[in-house]
Amino acid sequence: MLKTLLPSRFIVERDPDRCIQCQVCVRQCGFDVHYYDAEDDVVRARDEQCVACHRCVAYCPTDALTIRKNPLSYRDNFNWRPETIEDIIKQAETGGILLTGMGNDKSYPIYWDHLVLNASQVTNPSIDPLREPMELRTYLGRRPDSVEIDWETGRLKTSLTPLVPLEVPVMFSAISYGAISLNVHESLARAAREAGTLFNTGEGGLHRSLYQYGPNTTVQVASGRFGVHSEYLDVARMIEIKIGQGAKPGIGGHLPGEKVSAEVAKTRMIPRGTDALSPAPHHDIYSIEDLSQLIYALKEATNYTKPVSVKIAAVHNSAAIASGIVRAGADIVAIDGLRGATGAAPKMIRDNVGIPIELALASVDQRLREEGIRNRASIVCAGGIRNSADVVKAIALGADAVYIGTAALIAIGCHVCQACHTGRCSWGITTTNDYLVKRINPDIAAQRLVNLLRAWSLEIKEMLGGMGVNALESLRGNRLHLRGVGLTDTELEILGVRMAGS
Amino acid sequence: MQSKTMANPYNPYGDDKVIAACSIFGMMDTSGRRFSGADVTRAIANMHDRGNGLGGGFGVYGIYPEHADKYALHIMFEDSLTRRDVEAFLRDSFHIAYAEEVPTRPARGIVNPPVVWRYFVSLNDRRPGDLTEDDLVVQKIMQINTTFSAACVFSSGKNMGVFKGVGYPEDISAFFRLDEYEGYLWTAHGRFPTNTKGWWGGAHPFSILDWTVVHNGEISSYGINRRYLEMFGYHCTMHTDTEVVAYAVDLLLRRHNLPMEIAAKVFAPPLWSRIDRLEEGSAERALLTTLRQVYSSLLLNGPFTVIIAHEGEMIGLTDRIRLRPLIAGTKGDVLYLSSEEAAIRLICPDLEQAWSPMGGEPIVGRLKTDKQRKTAPAKEWAVV
Amino acid sequence: MDNATDLINRSGSTVEIDATGVYYRDLNTVLRNVCSGDVERIELRNVCGQRYIGTDLGRQVNIDIHGTPGNDLGAFMDGPRITVRGNAQDGCGNTMNEGQIVVHGHAGDITGFAMRGGKIFIRDNVGYRVGIHMKQYLSKVPWLVIGGTAQDFLGEYMAGGLLVVLGLNLKEGESHKANFIGTGMHAGVMYIRGSVAKEQLGKEVGAVELEEQDRRILGDLVGEFASHFGYDAGHILAGKFTKLVPLSLRPYGRLYAY
User: Fold this and answer.
1) Mutate to test the interface with C, among B39, B49, B274 (most CBs of C within 10 A)
2) Which of A133, A242, A336, C170 is 20 to 30 Å from C67 by CA-CA measure?
3) What CATH number has the domain bearing residue A418?
């Protein structure tokens, strides 16, 4: 093997005055960057392997470490930037597809940052959320267009299909067991239970030890059908058919063999060490009526006791597709945008395929309304939601709830180093290596997640109060509470919001 | 907005194309015996769940023997004013041998139907030099469909007719009283459009002259197929991939004079890996290679099954990796094609044969009585 | 269903149901209700296209289907033993977990898709993408035995299970037609009786000779197949078999640059 021609991306700086050669960094690094040179009795670093996950920095007892970008300068060239050059070097050396983790890191516009929220002043009152009731409860699922009452008895005649209650309109995005460790799955499940929301198994099945969290679980059915059987469907609160994912629209999942441990193999029902392949399409879905067939197969399998969600990536024809999904019988449509993350995706796909979630969400909500079928399904928005303001803006654009993935992982330690696909996560999140997995303590991680949701809830209530509404449903799809800044007429039209100042 | 329900494509959101999927069914008696639409209706109704009630339709051949030499124009009108104008145009362009309102009856699920008339016409003498009769008729139809927003010519062949609209196919059949017609070849379609409330002109079959197409699936190559056909003067006004199939068939079979078996190899060509395995220099390899080279823009890529019909012939074809279902059955002289076998079994429980073709392999039914028909001549290029 | 009882005719532990014109949801509701009792055998008459039969019954019960069951027969099925006196459509045994489906005829596309356990026996041909994503874990090994031949993408992405194609209806000298057999296969075994050319195989599988243990396994599979359809197992086993196995546990291990 040739020595790689790739320069190191980062440089590990160790302050010799502070370093006590304790080797915590050696033990903490999942990427074998730090090593102890016994001959010289000194800890050194292999810079070229560093991904800047900051695990060593966080755990160094004497704060002796920091990580810097390699300042190595190339001749300036707007077209041939360092990243482009280095990608070519990598492919020339391996002949492979460039693989990466997390979400799109390119500079596409982030429309959340061009939307501003309203607040009441004088003519209508703002509300003090500390003193007055503030309702965030949300129900996901299909509703009829009207309620029927028996005129004789005054009683309700309508019976709804099962709806899913959320105490906070934020759910944890689908992340599969295998892509992340069992401890992380458990942390998400426990936090969901405590916060009154749902976590999502992703496509790798559900470990038996987590069946107890079923009422707060969305189970996914994806093309690989890993771990899908009647008991798995029965324990869940909601079933989600995964068609696509924002990080990699149009392609399947591929869990590398390194991450397929014995327990992962058992849960997914595949051999240990094999690559878990989920192809792009479900092999029983090549058309909208096939999707309908699977939706009803799942409803039959659970005797119509659970809503079925269909998750798609945000792409050019999302509005038409979402309309078809609703007509096909889905109770929830989840849309995952351009910045949605993943445990592993081809870099070219992650960075070039799909559309921003804000535009997709706005057009889907609008289309379903124009066709008079918005009541038939809830919309869940995913892909790059960073904070409570993004949540509020998404809901004002038309989402019923949002999914968070990256934000949740950051809450439990992730530093967004984009190396999930290596399976060597120093924070013990995107790995199934027993040594690393133990770094996530579900007691602590679940608490951090609950803290995050609590903080966001408080902030959402503050924002709602400011707008003068005391129930989230008054904001849902209420685009009058949004204004655009720095957007073209076309962008404003698609988002269905007016320019700030107008 | 109202007028958008007719000839103009109901595509209010300006989507790339209108996406739809569905159930399809075809039934042909190759002896030429004519039969009513009752069985076909039952069969397509058995696949109710493959559609969503936003489109249903039928194509039927041999229904107008008394006017067999006339072009039978089926036209939908939104109002009588438009009808008056269109009829003036027809009188100016054609000799109208006979005209009547297409009889209908109230049917469940059929709301706000248009008025539908049929005109049996021949060309009058004022015909420009180098155009064929067929060309001229096509031209006139395109003219009507682009000029009159509240009218739509949806059927124009001889001794055949298309009946279609918004509703489940069984309801459309009841509405048009198809149990009262007899033909030797019927095709049927139940539609599942994903994104519109459906419009009458957008239901299948799509037709031009006596070609009809019913289609299940989505053609991902639509963009280039359409641009290619536009070079040959076809205007894809309906914004659906099915329309593309109808025009492509017209181009290859009528204008380029290719037999159906060869056209099938254009729409669903063998993979290069298969062609590469054929003997170097063989006639088959040369044929398949040349077809792919010349007609590369007509490869219909993506999942599809179509039933294409015209006078005396019914063809079932899937994409080359058969991502959409097609099952064929025969009993005696009758050939059945369907998305699901149960639909065939419902009306013919004792089939002699039932099978699914390999992807891209056409199933062709032809009238036995038709000696004139151009069939694939030499076996060596009738590629299996 | 208001008049569900009209459809049902019960004698002892056998129930006969006339499915003529009954919508699938109603039919499956009737089946659920019937199976909550102590019934052992169900005769379903005049089935014509009803979907998802056997899906949510969750226990061992024998179901005889007369007619043509619709798509996704036995999808997610967990226990019932279904016999079809006729042909099955697409999606037969989709993600099936336990139980058995015996089809006295042919079956459509994606038969046995993502099967996790149980057994499927098809007397005649099957369609495209059959046995895709079959799985296994330890002693839980699904069986899919096809008497006729299959179309393209047979056993694609197989991650386990036993898939047998017997080619009983191929003529002398005729070979199987399927291409891309076992593309992406990474576990499990396929046994094909009759000739298959190398170019029909996906890149990720290899053909190997049968060993003693294979003969034993095949004996079980073919023996059970033959007993369902009244064939002579010895005669079938005397044919020439090819064993297809994945070349690697990680067929796409070298696909990526890290």
Assistant:
1) B49
2) C170
3) 3.20.20.70
